[in-house]
Specification:
alpha/beta; Rossmann fold; 2 domains; 7-stranded mixed sheet; 13 strands; 28% helix; 21% strand; globular
Length: 345
Amino acid sequence: MAVMITAAVAGASGYAGGEVLRLLLGHPDINIGPVAAESSAGASVAQLHPHLPQLADRRFAPMDADTLATADVVFFALPHGASAALARALPATLPIVDLGADHRLADADAWTGYYPGQWAGTWTYGLPELPGARGRIAESLRVANPGCYPTGVILGLSPLLAADLVEPDDIVVVAASGTTGAGRKPSGALLASEIVGSMAAYKAGGTHQHTPEIEQALGWAAQAPVTVSFTPTLAPMPRGILATTTARLAPGVGTDQLRDVLHDAYAGEQFVYIAAEGTWPASGWTLGSNSVLIQAAADAHSGRAVVVTAIDNLVKGAAGQAIQNVNLMLGLDEAAGLTSTGVAP
Protein backbone atom coordinates (compact mmCIF):
# COMPACT_ATOMS: atom_id res chain seq x y z
CA MET A 1 0.00 0.00 0.00
CA ALA A 2 1.33 3.42 -0.96
CA VAL A 3 2.19 5.81 1.87
CA MET A 4 -0.26 8.72 1.99
CA ILE A 5 1.08 12.26 1.92
CA THR A 6 -0.11 14.66 4.62
CA ALA A 7 -0.98 18.24 3.70
CA ALA A 8 -1.40 21.19 6.03
CA VAL A 9 -3.54 24.18 5.09
CA ALA A 10 -2.73 27.58 6.60
CA GLY A 11 -5.58 30.03 6.28
CA ALA A 12 -8.13 27.24 5.94
CA SER A 13 -11.07 29.30 7.23
CA GLY A 14 -11.35 31.43 4.06
CA TYR A 15 -12.97 30.61 0.75
CA ALA A 16 -9.74 29.58 -0.98
CA GLY A 17 -8.61 27.54 2.02
CA GLY A 18 -11.98 25.84 2.21
CA GLU A 19 -11.74 25.00 -1.48
CA VAL A 20 -8.32 23.42 -0.89
CA LEU A 21 -9.91 21.25 1.80
CA ARG A 22 -12.81 20.28 -0.46
CA LEU A 23 -10.53 19.16 -3.26
CA LEU A 24 -8.11 17.37 -0.94
CA LEU A 25 -10.99 15.28 0.40
CA GLY A 26 -11.16 13.71 -3.05
CA HIS A 27 -7.42 13.36 -3.58
CA PRO A 28 -6.25 9.74 -3.85
CA ASP A 29 -2.74 10.36 -2.51
CA ILE A 30 -3.05 13.17 0.06
CA ASN A 31 -4.58 13.20 3.53
CA ILE A 32 -5.58 16.40 5.31
CA GLY A 33 -3.29 17.13 8.25
CA PRO A 34 -3.16 20.35 10.29
CA VAL A 35 -5.91 22.82 9.37
CA ALA A 36 -4.85 26.21 10.67
CA ALA A 37 -6.50 29.60 10.93
CA GLU A 38 -5.74 32.88 12.67
CA SER A 39 -8.86 34.40 14.23
CA SER A 40 -10.88 31.18 13.83
CA ALA A 41 -8.46 28.98 15.78
CA GLY A 42 -10.42 26.60 18.00
CA ALA A 43 -13.61 26.85 15.97
CA SER A 44 -15.16 23.83 14.28
CA VAL A 45 -14.15 23.41 10.65
CA ALA A 46 -17.72 22.42 9.77
CA GLN A 47 -19.02 25.61 11.39
CA LEU A 48 -17.33 27.71 8.71
CA HIS A 49 -17.44 25.05 5.98
CA PRO A 50 -20.75 23.22 6.49
CA HIS A 51 -20.41 21.72 2.99
CA LEU A 52 -17.53 19.60 4.34
CA PRO A 53 -19.26 17.22 6.80
CA GLN A 54 -16.29 14.85 6.55
CA LEU A 55 -14.38 17.39 8.68
CA ALA A 56 -17.09 17.87 11.31
CA ASP A 57 -14.84 16.46 14.04
CA ARG A 58 -11.96 18.80 13.20
CA ARG A 59 -11.13 22.19 14.70
CA PHE A 60 -8.91 24.92 13.32
CA ALA A 61 -5.45 24.88 14.85
CA PRO A 62 -3.52 28.07 15.62
CA MET A 63 -1.23 29.39 12.88
CA ASP A 64 1.83 27.74 14.41
CA ALA A 65 4.91 26.93 12.30
CA ASP A 66 5.81 23.87 14.40
CA THR A 67 2.35 22.38 13.83
CA LEU A 68 2.41 23.07 10.08
CA ALA A 69 5.90 21.56 9.83
CA THR A 70 4.56 18.13 10.84
CA ALA A 71 3.00 17.83 7.36
CA ASP A 72 4.70 16.72 4.13
CA VAL A 73 3.47 19.75 2.16
CA VAL A 74 1.82 23.05 3.12
CA PHE A 75 -0.75 25.19 1.33
CA PHE A 76 -0.78 28.88 2.23
CA ALA A 77 -4.22 30.46 1.72
CA LEU A 78 -3.42 33.68 3.53
CA PRO A 79 -4.04 37.39 2.93
CA HIS A 80 -1.50 39.16 0.73
CA GLY A 81 1.56 40.05 2.79
CA ALA A 82 1.03 37.35 5.42
CA SER A 83 2.91 34.44 3.82
CA ALA A 84 6.52 35.58 3.83
CA ALA A 85 7.10 35.55 7.60
CA LEU A 86 5.43 32.16 8.03
CA ALA A 87 7.47 30.70 5.16
CA ARG A 88 10.69 31.84 6.82
CA ALA A 89 9.68 30.05 10.02
CA LEU A 90 9.21 26.71 8.25
CA PRO A 91 12.00 24.29 7.25
CA ALA A 92 13.61 25.11 3.91
CA THR A 93 13.08 21.50 2.82
CA LEU A 94 9.29 21.62 3.31
CA PRO A 95 7.34 22.03 0.02
CA ILE A 96 5.00 25.04 0.06
CA VAL A 97 2.52 26.44 -2.43
CA ASP A 98 1.49 30.02 -1.69
CA LEU A 99 -1.95 31.01 -2.97
CA GLY A 100 -1.24 34.63 -2.02
CA ALA A 101 0.72 37.26 -3.91
CA ASP A 102 3.79 37.47 -1.65
CA HIS A 103 6.16 35.58 -3.96
CA ARG A 104 4.73 36.08 -7.48
CA LEU A 105 6.56 39.21 -8.58
CA ALA A 106 10.20 39.26 -9.68
CA ASP A 107 10.46 43.05 -9.47
CA ALA A 108 10.59 44.72 -6.05
CA ASP A 109 9.35 48.01 -7.51
CA ALA A 110 6.29 46.27 -8.97
CA TRP A 111 5.48 44.93 -5.49
CA THR A 112 5.83 48.24 -3.68
CA GLY A 113 3.68 49.98 -6.29
CA TYR A 114 0.69 47.73 -5.58
CA TYR A 115 1.08 45.99 -2.21
CA PRO A 116 1.84 47.06 1.36
CA GLY A 117 4.93 45.94 3.24
CA GLN A 118 8.27 44.75 1.95
CA TRP A 119 8.85 42.63 -1.13
CA ALA A 120 9.61 39.05 -0.04
CA GLY A 121 11.41 37.85 -3.17
CA THR A 122 10.15 35.56 -5.88
CA TRP A 123 9.34 31.85 -6.01
CA THR A 124 8.76 29.62 -9.03
CA TYR A 125 5.65 30.87 -10.82
CA GLY A 126 3.09 28.06 -10.75
CA LEU A 127 1.18 28.22 -14.02
CA PRO A 128 1.89 24.73 -15.39
CA GLU A 129 0.59 25.32 -18.91
CA LEU A 130 3.18 28.02 -19.66
CA PRO A 131 6.16 26.82 -21.76
CA GLY A 132 8.78 25.11 -19.59
CA ALA A 133 6.82 25.70 -16.38
CA ARG A 134 6.18 22.07 -15.48
CA GLY A 135 9.86 21.24 -15.21
CA ARG A 136 10.55 24.29 -13.06
CA ILE A 137 7.61 23.51 -10.77
CA ALA A 138 8.62 19.85 -10.41
CA GLU A 139 12.11 20.90 -9.31
CA SER A 140 10.89 23.49 -6.79
CA LEU A 141 10.15 23.37 -3.09
CA ARG A 142 8.49 26.81 -3.08
CA VAL A 143 5.89 27.72 -5.69
CA ALA A 144 3.85 30.91 -6.06
CA ASN A 145 0.32 30.17 -7.24
CA PRO A 146 -0.88 32.72 -9.83
CA GLY A 147 -3.70 35.11 -9.08
CA CYS A 148 -7.23 34.33 -10.26
CA TYR A 149 -7.57 37.13 -12.82
CA PRO A 150 -4.05 36.62 -14.21
CA THR A 151 -4.56 32.89 -14.79
CA GLY A 152 -7.21 33.26 -17.48
CA VAL A 153 -5.75 36.39 -19.07
CA ILE A 154 -2.22 34.97 -19.29
CA LEU A 155 -3.29 31.63 -20.74
CA GLY A 156 -5.54 33.31 -23.27
CA LEU A 157 -3.06 35.86 -24.63
CA SER A 158 0.44 34.40 -24.07
CA PRO A 159 0.48 32.11 -27.15
CA LEU A 160 -0.64 34.98 -29.39
CA LEU A 161 2.11 37.25 -28.09
CA ALA A 162 4.72 34.51 -28.46
CA ALA A 163 3.67 34.00 -32.08
CA ASP A 164 3.79 37.77 -32.80
CA LEU A 165 0.13 37.80 -33.78
CA VAL A 166 -0.66 40.73 -31.47
CA GLU A 167 1.20 43.81 -30.27
CA PRO A 168 2.42 44.01 -26.66
CA ASP A 169 2.02 47.71 -25.98
CA ASP A 170 -1.76 48.21 -25.99
CA ILE A 171 -3.49 45.40 -24.11
CA VAL A 172 -6.86 46.01 -22.48
CA VAL A 173 -8.48 43.61 -20.01
CA VAL A 174 -12.01 43.90 -18.62
CA ALA A 175 -12.91 41.00 -16.34
CA ALA A 176 -15.84 40.07 -14.12
CA SER A 177 -15.40 38.03 -10.95
CA GLY A 178 -17.72 36.39 -8.48
CA THR A 179 -17.85 37.74 -4.95
CA THR A 180 -15.69 34.98 -3.43
CA GLY A 181 -12.74 36.69 -5.12
CA ALA A 182 -13.03 39.42 -2.49
CA GLY A 183 -12.49 36.96 0.35
CA ARG A 184 -14.62 36.12 3.37
CA LYS A 185 -14.14 39.27 5.43
CA PRO A 186 -17.52 41.00 5.90
CA SER A 187 -18.01 44.09 3.74
CA GLY A 188 -20.95 46.35 3.08
CA ALA A 189 -20.14 46.33 -0.63
CA LEU A 190 -20.64 42.54 -0.68
CA LEU A 191 -24.08 42.48 0.95
CA ALA A 192 -26.69 40.73 -1.17
CA SER A 193 -28.74 43.94 -1.29
CA GLU A 194 -25.76 45.69 -2.89
CA ILE A 195 -24.70 43.10 -5.47
CA VAL A 196 -27.85 41.24 -6.56
CA GLY A 197 -29.07 42.63 -9.88
CA SER A 198 -26.06 44.90 -10.27
CA MET A 199 -22.47 44.96 -11.53
CA ALA A 200 -19.77 47.40 -10.48
CA ALA A 201 -16.21 48.21 -11.45
CA TYR A 202 -13.62 48.44 -8.69
CA LYS A 203 -9.93 49.28 -8.41
CA ALA A 204 -10.15 50.73 -11.92
CA GLY A 205 -7.68 53.17 -13.45
CA GLY A 206 -4.65 50.89 -13.21
CA THR A 207 -4.78 50.36 -9.45
CA HIS A 208 -5.63 46.64 -9.18
CA GLN A 209 -2.80 44.60 -7.65
CA HIS A 210 -2.92 41.93 -10.38
CA THR A 211 -1.78 44.40 -13.05
CA PRO A 212 1.99 43.88 -12.59
CA GLU A 213 1.56 40.10 -12.43
CA ILE A 214 -0.30 40.07 -15.74
CA GLU A 215 2.32 42.33 -17.33
CA GLN A 216 5.16 40.19 -15.98
CA ALA A 217 3.91 36.90 -17.43
CA LEU A 218 2.74 38.38 -20.72
CA GLY A 219 6.17 40.01 -21.00
CA TRP A 220 7.77 36.57 -20.76
CA ALA A 221 5.68 35.47 -23.75
CA ALA A 222 6.30 38.61 -25.78
CA GLN A 223 9.97 38.84 -24.80
CA ALA A 224 9.33 42.55 -24.58
CA PRO A 225 7.77 45.02 -22.13
CA VAL A 226 3.98 44.76 -22.00
CA THR A 227 1.48 47.46 -21.05
CA VAL A 228 -1.90 46.40 -19.68
CA SER A 229 -4.98 48.45 -18.83
CA PHE A 230 -6.96 46.28 -16.41
CA THR A 231 -10.50 46.98 -15.21
CA PRO A 232 -12.01 44.39 -12.83
CA THR A 233 -15.74 44.23 -12.19
CA LEU A 234 -17.80 42.50 -9.51
CA ALA A 235 -20.56 40.24 -10.84
CA PRO A 236 -23.61 39.07 -8.85
CA MET A 237 -22.47 35.45 -8.60
CA PRO A 238 -20.55 33.54 -5.91
CA ARG A 239 -17.72 32.23 -8.10
CA GLY A 240 -16.31 32.39 -11.61
CA ILE A 241 -14.32 34.78 -13.81
CA LEU A 242 -15.04 35.90 -17.34
CA ALA A 243 -12.18 37.94 -18.79
CA THR A 244 -12.23 39.80 -22.10
CA THR A 245 -8.79 40.79 -23.38
CA THR A 246 -8.09 42.81 -26.50
CA ALA A 247 -4.80 43.65 -28.21
CA ARG A 248 -3.82 45.23 -31.51
CA LEU A 249 -3.47 42.69 -34.29
CA ALA A 250 -0.29 42.32 -36.32
CA PRO A 251 -0.89 43.12 -40.01
CA GLY A 252 -2.85 40.49 -41.92
CA VAL A 253 -3.79 38.34 -38.91
CA GLY A 254 -7.28 36.79 -38.92
CA THR A 255 -9.41 34.63 -36.68
CA ASP A 256 -8.18 31.34 -38.11
CA GLN A 257 -4.57 32.17 -37.25
CA LEU A 258 -5.47 33.14 -33.69
CA ARG A 259 -7.41 29.92 -33.13
CA ASP A 260 -4.76 27.74 -34.79
CA VAL A 261 -2.04 29.10 -32.50
CA LEU A 262 -4.20 28.55 -29.41
CA HIS A 263 -5.03 25.00 -30.49
CA ASP A 264 -1.34 24.25 -31.05
CA ALA A 265 -0.31 25.79 -27.73
CA TYR A 266 -2.72 23.71 -25.68
CA ALA A 267 -2.92 20.49 -27.67
CA GLY A 268 -2.98 17.62 -25.18
CA GLU A 269 -3.55 19.84 -22.13
CA GLN A 270 -5.93 18.36 -19.58
CA PHE A 271 -7.38 21.61 -18.32
CA VAL A 272 -7.26 24.13 -21.18
CA TYR A 273 -9.89 23.99 -23.91
CA ILE A 274 -10.47 26.12 -27.00
CA ALA A 275 -14.19 26.68 -27.46
CA ALA A 276 -15.86 25.65 -30.68
CA GLU A 277 -15.75 28.30 -33.37
CA GLY A 278 -18.49 30.86 -32.84
CA THR A 279 -19.07 29.79 -29.23
CA TRP A 280 -18.08 32.23 -26.52
CA PRO A 281 -17.22 30.95 -23.02
CA ALA A 282 -19.49 31.51 -20.04
CA SER A 283 -18.24 31.54 -16.47
CA GLY A 284 -20.85 28.98 -15.39
CA TRP A 285 -19.40 26.35 -17.70
CA THR A 286 -16.29 26.00 -15.52
CA LEU A 287 -18.07 25.84 -12.17
CA GLY A 288 -16.27 23.44 -9.84
CA SER A 289 -13.67 22.49 -12.44
CA ASN A 290 -9.98 23.18 -12.92
CA SER A 291 -10.59 24.08 -16.56
CA VAL A 292 -9.90 27.15 -18.64
CA LEU A 293 -12.16 27.85 -21.64
CA ILE A 294 -10.76 30.15 -24.33
CA GLN A 295 -12.16 31.73 -27.47
CA ALA A 296 -10.56 34.24 -29.81
CA ALA A 297 -11.53 36.26 -32.85
CA ALA A 298 -9.99 38.95 -35.01
CA ASP A 299 -12.07 42.14 -34.98
CA ALA A 300 -11.28 43.46 -38.45
CA HIS A 301 -13.23 46.66 -37.81
CA SER A 302 -11.02 47.80 -34.92
CA GLY A 303 -7.88 45.87 -35.85
CA ARG A 304 -7.83 44.08 -32.50
CA ALA A 305 -7.76 40.49 -31.29
CA VAL A 306 -10.54 39.64 -28.85
CA VAL A 307 -9.81 36.81 -26.41
CA VAL A 308 -12.41 35.64 -23.89
CA THR A 309 -11.51 33.22 -21.08
CA ALA A 310 -13.61 31.61 -18.37
CA ILE A 311 -12.40 29.95 -15.16
CA ASP A 312 -13.67 29.10 -11.70
CA ASN A 313 -11.79 31.61 -9.56
CA LEU A 314 -11.67 29.25 -6.58
CA VAL A 315 -10.46 26.21 -8.54
CA LYS A 316 -8.15 26.96 -11.49
CA GLY A 317 -7.86 30.49 -10.11
CA ALA A 318 -6.77 29.30 -6.65
CA ALA A 319 -7.14 25.91 -4.93
CA GLY A 320 -7.25 23.64 -7.97
CA GLN A 321 -4.17 25.17 -9.49
CA ALA A 322 -2.41 24.91 -6.12
CA ILE A 323 -3.17 21.17 -6.02
CA GLN A 324 -2.04 20.85 -9.64
CA ASN A 325 1.27 22.43 -8.59
CA VAL A 326 1.64 20.20 -5.52
CA ASN A 327 1.01 17.15 -7.68
CA LEU A 328 3.89 18.21 -9.93
CA MET A 329 6.17 19.02 -6.98
CA LEU A 330 5.58 15.63 -5.37
CA GLY A 331 5.75 13.56 -8.56
CA LEU A 332 2.07 12.63 -8.52
CA ASP A 333 -0.41 12.48 -11.39
CA GLU A 334 -0.87 16.15 -12.29
CA ALA A 335 -4.66 15.77 -12.43
CA ALA A 336 -5.02 13.84 -9.15
CA GLY A 337 -7.90 15.20 -7.07
CA LEU A 338 -9.04 17.50 -9.89
CA THR A 339 -11.68 17.47 -12.60
CA SER A 340 -11.88 19.21 -15.96
CA THR A 341 -15.67 18.87 -15.99
CA GLY A 342 -17.85 21.75 -14.86
CA VAL A 343 -21.22 21.62 -13.15
CA ALA A 344 -24.26 22.89 -15.05
CA PRO A 345 -26.83 24.30 -14.81
